[in-house]
Write a structure and sequence with these properties.
The complex is a heterodimer of chains A (423) and B (122). Chain A is built from nine helices and 27 strands. With 423 residues, chain A is an alpha/beta fold. Chain A folds into three domains: 188 residues, FAD/NAD(P)-binding domain, CATH 3.50.50; 131 residues, FAD/NAD(P)-binding domain, CATH 3.50.50.60; 85 residues, Immunoglobulin-like. Chain B is built from two helices and ten strands. A five-stranded mixed sheet of chain B has the order 8-5-6-10-9. Chain B starts with a strand and ends with a strand. Classes of the chains: A alpha/beta (423), B alpha+beta (122).
């Protein structure tokens, strides 16, 4: 069996940044396994601009952003096998993969970085009633058809879900001559960025139906019409509010789920809320030597943050391979109550920190003019005033080693109404 | 007259209200902007109401490449009301691989003084 210091599963934004991070920390024996025909991941089909403001200080398209990283991978001579599908990953860090250029291979890695990204939730995941005609796609599938293959998915379009991919596709289909009749959102607020609501919907007079969902799909060979219903505060369709739209295409932008079947096979413990691996401050999973970063760990809003997390995972894997991690006590980081959706990392080793810990979290609901509280073992330690907190936007908070050394068991986060003066 | 708009500069998404009047020559004069929580909001409102511009991204037909489309972008923002004119020119173009990132695909699109350039190498 071949051996390799570091195998990275996935050559998208997370995997490429991880490879570069590990290389710059001194690791040379690196192998990226990429399922698609070239590295770059989902960025390659995201032809709109707005990527890279944090990483490069300028707004790039997805393909341009990817090219900055593929260029570095090539320059550094990091090995990347494309068309490579990883079939198995085990806790002893052996992997099986197949690719047209290598055939069936087994490799024993000393460290592994999971960078497989996420998948879109399909129609089956939300259970829309009706027939099963052609013309129903996830927004990302339609995006790939249109932007890489030049295939127009349809002419009269309705979009379910107001996440950014749905909004971007509303504009994209409109620019290509389709008529987008509307975007429906189950929640009373959009999960997309305000700038996308403005630039992708309002600029083209595309209506946004908040608190609405698709309750029927009609058509035999091809989609003929969809039925839209208003929903109540419990997100249940209200009878009598049905209206139909004659469309040939329905695009779904109803959420992303980290793709972790390999992680599960390796026995890595997943978090019920992020649906990604549980990790510590080094982004190490519950299996020593296996790290995770990017959308396979938790779904991000901005690729810049995926790249930063990838770099961190690469540096951590390098540290694991060169010095190793000393045994050390760990504390938990978690939501204090239901105001917070999740906190990441979920464990921290205060005594072995050599740099501050950047905690990432999402709120469970939309909040305005509130206080974020950080609790050490149940006692409020820090309070930060927040003007706007939205579930769609990941929040970050950096704490230093000194902030964490005296935590005995748990660091917790919650949102408190109103402002309480912090001492 | 009052005009309402949503600031798109940052995630705050401030609801802005601009107090405007139409001058004798038909132009829009902005007297004041309220609702913004930083100076960028006022700048955005003034630009958006007087001369709204957008960056346009799309694809052109590609021959002999890995994919059948090449992603392209305007080299600078163009007037918002010319987006569909620009799209028409973009749709009429076909290029052959290889293409380098930032290669000019259409020079001076619609006479706007802006180029359509490749947004990746293929």
């Amino acid at each position: 069996m071949n051996t390799c210091d570091l195998v990275i599963i996935g050559g998208g934004s997370a995997g490429m940044a991880a490879a570069i991070g590990a290389y710059k920390s001194g690791i040379r024996d690196i192998l990226i396994l990429e399922r698609d025909a070239e590295p770059g991941g989902i960025l390659l089909q995201c032809i709109h601009n707005g990527f890279g403001l944090h990483t490069f200080g300028e707004e790039l398209t997805g393909p341009s952003y990817a090219e900055r990283f593929t260029g570095q991978i090539n320059e550094l001579g990091i090995r990347c096998v494309t068309g490579a599908l990883v079939l198995h990953l085990r806790a002893d860090k052996t992997l099986d993969y197949i690719s047209p250029q290598t055939g069936y291979r087994q490799v024993k890695a000393r460290a592994v970085i999971l960078a497989m990204g996420c998948r879109e939730r399909p129609r089956g995941a939300i259970g829309i009633p009706g027939t099963r005609p052609a013309g129903i796609w996830t927004a990302g599938t339609a995006q790939r058809y249109l932007n890489l293959d030049g295939i127009m998915p349809g002419r009269r379009v309705f979009i379910l879900g107001s996440g950014d991919i749905g909004l971007i596709m509303a504009r994209r289909m409109t620019l290509e001559g389709a008529q987008v009749l509307g975007v429906a959102e189950l929640m009373p607020y959009s999960n997309g960025l305000q700038r996308n609501i403005k630039q992708c919907l309002e600029d083209f007079d595309i209506p946004l139906f908040l608190s609405h969902t698709v309750t029927d799909i009609r058509g035999q060979e091809r989609l003929r019409e969809i039925v839209l219903s208003r929903v109540d505060e419990n997100r249940r369709p209200i009878p009598g509010t049905e209206r139909s739209f004659a469309v040939d295409t329905l695009l779904l932008s109803v959420g992303l789920v980290p793709e972790n079947y390999l992680s599960e096979e390796a026995g890595i413990v997943l978090h019920p809320r992020t649906r990604g691996p549980l990790v510590d401050e080094a982004l190490q999973t519950t299996v020593p030597g296996i790290f995770a970063c990017g959308n396979v760990l938790h779904v991000h809003d901005l690729v810049d943050f995926v790249s930063a997390e990838g770099t961190q995972a690469g540096e951590s894997a390098a540290r694991y391979l060169t010095d190793g991690f000393a045994d050390s006590r760990s504390i938990l980081a978690a939501p204090a109550d239901r105001t917070i959706g999740y906190v990441l990392p979920q464990t921290v080793h205060p005594d072995r920190l050599d740099k501050p810990v950047e905690f990432k979290f999402r709120v469970a609901d939309a909040y305005r003019n509130v206080t974020l509280q950080v609790l050490k073992d149940g006692q409020v330690y820090k309070e930060i005033r927040k003007r706007v907190l939205l579930p769609a936007e990941m929040e970050k908070l950096t704490l230093k080693k000194d902030d964490l050394l005296d935590v005995k068991q748990e660091l917790a986060f919650r949102i408190a109404a109103g402002h309480i003066d912090a001492s | 007259m009052k005009k309402e708009l949503t600031c798109i500069i940052c995630p705050m998404g401030c609801r802005l209200e601009a107090d405007c009047e139409t001058t004798e020559n038909g132009a829009l004069a902005i007297r004041s902007v309220t609702g913004n929580t930083c100076p960028r909001g006022e700048r955005y409102a003034r630009a958006e109401l007087s001369y709204p511009e957008r960056t346009v991204t799309s694809t052109v037909v590609l021959q002999g490449g890995r994919y059948r489309r090449l992603p392209v972008i305007t080299s600078a923002p163009i007037p918002k009301d010319r987006i569909f004119d620009v799209m028409e020119e973009i749709r009429a173009v076909s290029v052959c691989a290889p293409v380098k990132i930032h290669d000019i695909i259409i020079e001076n699109v619609c006479g706007l003084g802006v180029n359509i350039i490749a947004s990746r190498s293929l």
